[in-house]
């Protein structure tokens, strides 16, 4: 129509945008899928990293725990025989006597010193002496009862705590087994070495109630057994007991 005049006609132009909308939706799905894939990959990567770090930290913690346990074991055990050592003896005896006091049952402490060990060292060497100590420690341990404890105090000295004894005869029977076992020859350095043992025994609470007193009396009894000829055992306050050998003869005295 004429400019400024009335509108004569109106027309509309339509375009088909279906394909454009479909393309736009496809593009958004593609973007969303890509983002989700990237996020999923990142999550899996982080998860794997965290799990790997957890495994590494757990392995390190186990290694530290094993190392700490090994250090603790070495502090309380003898490196040669694997037996609890003097430090362990002091702590365990306190606990065992406290338990015995609570339950009102006797305990026997045996102090065991080998006879003739120095001669084996001098003749066959220190390696043979170590081998003999290991063998003797195993023999003594096999003579003890369930619940009894064996300690290496150092050198050729051992202590055994008999945690439950009804009478002195219980400790006497164990001492006899130990003496017989120790007296058997041991193969070292291609030869048969023979040692013996002298044993002192003190009873809780009959002889002493304190750990130090009990150890001192057992040690004194051991020296009395050794002075009486070795190869025998003695209770505190009683004469040494001579143990007959397999052939029915007294045990021959051995050199110190």
Q: What does this protein structure show overall?
A:
With 256 residues, the protein is an alpha+beta fold. Helices cover 53% and strands 16% of the residues. It contains six helices and eight strands. The chain has helices spanning 18-76, 86-103, 117-124, 126-143, 168-182, 211-227, and strands at 107-115, 149-154, 157-162, 186-188, 191-193, 196-204, 232-235, 241-242. The strands form two sheets. Strands 2-3-1-6-7-8 form a six-stranded mixed sheet, sandwiched between helices. A two-stranded antiparallel ribbon has the order 4-5. Strand 2 (149-154) and strand 3 form a beta hairpin. The longest helix has 59 residues, at 18-76. The radius of gyration is 41 Å and the shape is rod-shaped.
Query: Multimeric state of these chains?
Result: single chain
The structure class reads alpha+beta
Shape: rod-shaped
Gyration radius over CA: 41 Å
Approximate strand percentage: 15-25%
What strand order characterises the main sheet? 2-3-1-6-7-8
